[in-house]
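Protocol step 4 of 5: obtain the predicted structure for the target chain.
Materials: sequence only (see below). No template structures provided, no constraints applied. The aim of this step is simply to have a reference model before the mutagenesis design in step 5. Sequence pasted as it appears in the construct record:
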Amino acid sequence: MRGGEVGRAPIVLGLLVTAWLVFAAVDGHFLSARNLSGISVDMVGIGMVALGLVFVLALGEIDLSVGSVAGLATVVFALLRVRAGLPEVIAALAAVLTGAAIGALHGFLHAKSRIPGYVVTLAGLLGWYGLALYLLGASGTVNFDDGGLVASLTGAYLGHPAAAYGLAALGTAAFLFTSYRDLRRHKAAGMPYVPLGVLLLRTAALAAVVFAAAYALDGFQGLPVALLVFLTAVAALNYLLRRMPYGRKVFALGSAAEAARRAGIDVTSVRVSVFVISGAMAALGGLFLASPTASTIQPLGSPTLLLNALAAAVLGGASLYGARGTAWSALLGVLFIQSIASGVILLGIQAAIQYMITAGVLLAAVLIDSASRRAQRLQGRA
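Step 4 output (structure tokens):
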């Protein structure tokens, strides 16, 4: 702790378990298979947006436009599908590409003009919000086919038990394999490494959690397709951010941009690509959020979407100071936020309580992050 190695993940995980126990004590339906399955599906939309924000936060910037981009993407999809009559897959792809193009514009303006990212994306928040309202017109919303691909994103399940339990086994095996490989590499290089006993204990703890989750999901309708897509995106983006040269470039820019430039990193291309990822993930998250109602996201909800996604990324471990975070941060953070939302609704408490709880925990997470960085500087490691 004195060295600044206090991770937020154990703290948030402890708060999550505590919240679950409190909600379960008040209402026994909270830990039912149906409710837990609902949480796993409802968190996907916000989680996708938070995934993109993890990359931007690692860069030391912030993207304030993700809520508006998500809403605009659903409008683009609905208009192309309903009014233009394009095939659903093409319309969905066009919506995601729209988000990516918007991110590229934000990143280019930020990189070339050196205007802070939050200023550029604040203008984007207002501009894309207005464009979405303009395209919707007097109707305020556009409904699309409730039996199509996008509408089924949050309603499809893999009912066979092998799906949920197989995914749990695959995840545990992947964690053990990658962790043991890192242990051997660090040991061979004379670097600090996690002892084998601790690694096996972590693997056992992870197995207990994921197999319990598989049991709960199998008790309702099976593995939700939306959750499977989300976990796949988390694993892929985490590999990109933590184990690929690209991710090291992002963290280098987030830590010391001038030093990274002098080291030969193409600062402009990395900055643009990070905002492209953020825009594309925001658009994809918007499609998941639009899926349950088979209609466009209400533009008035974009600020709330932004705050929830940002809170999820920061709660899970991404730093507002840059150069820290993993894609798993988004998963842990959004699980906490959606659990609070579900408990509040289940107990009939005012929705305002959810925001106050999230605000308190978010403030605590930022304070922990600040204290951790201060301790690392005192130890000469930051």
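Step 4 remarks: Residues 158-223 form one domain. The beta strands are 157-158, 223-224.
Proceed to step 5.
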